[in-house]
Amino acid sequence: MKLEDFVEGQRYEYTDIATAAGYAPQPGGNFGRGIVLAPRYVPAVITIKINRAKGLYSDTYREGTRVFDYIGDGLPEEGDQKLRLGNRIMFRQRDLPVMFFLRKVGESKQDPWWFKGIWRIASCKRAEDPEKIKPDGEYQKVFRFSLRWVAPSLDRLPLWSERRAKTGFFWPRALEGTDYIRVTREALQVILPRHRRLADGFWDWLTARGFQDVELETDRVDVRFRSAEDRYMAELKVVYGTTSTKSLREAMGQVLEYNYYENRGPFDKWLVVLDKEPREHDQNYISRLESDLGLPLNMGWHTSDGFRFVHPFEST
Question: Does residue 36 sit in the same domain as residue 55?
Answer without folding.
Answer: yes
